[in-house]
Amino acid sequence: MRFRLTPRETSFYELFATAADNVLSGSKLLMELLGADPATRVEIADRMRAAEHAGDDATHAIFHQLNSSFITPFDREDIYRLAARLDDIMDFMEEAVDLVVLYEIDELPKGVDQQIEVLGRAAELTAEAMPRLRTMRDLNEYWIEVNRLENQADQIHRRLLAHLFNGTYEAIEVMKLKQIVDVLEEAADAFEAVANTVETIVVKES
């Protein structure tokens, strides 16, 4: 850890923890969508939209704090990147829920539940990791596991695509379902991007 003579603005830690907790809430709404009757999905989508707005608020709070702070706990570009990538996760999860509702999907294909379970685990790890930025300790297992989960998500995504293109579905249905599973894969990629950013921060500060 580099020694500093100047005081640092510490509210960023709480702001990142808030953003990550909101991501965890979003992942739980995704899980709730899986077992929901199509008639109740609109209400879940409304709650996910509210969570996405809360995520935007958390991101804007971090940017505001960044613009008003002379001394930051770590590099400004890393603060910006970490906030933006946490926001990306919420955007992708909200988009997936919205597409399920807009396309009036009666039944999601087998394998989507596995995608969402991976996202839920990544969200838990991310929410647990953000408070540890304050000490920069015990974070290596976090980014290693999130990278492993992203590899698992890649495999699930490929199997889903193979299933969608095996002739079971009509062409228009394939297009709709592919867009949903692709967005969920983008959410997994975004979790990995957050973990990689955290690794970069820790390496710089060590």
From TrEMBL:
Check the record and name the Gene3D superfamilies matching this protein. Answer: Phosphate transport system protein phou homolog 2, domain 2
The record's listing under InterPro entries reads: PhoU-like_sf, Put_Phosphate_transp_reg, UPF0111_domain
Q: Name one Pfam family in it.
A: PhoU_div
Taxonomic superkingdom: Bacteria
- What sections of the protein cross the membrane? none
The family note in this entry says: Belongs to the UPF0111 family.
The protein depicted here goes by the name: DUF47 family protein
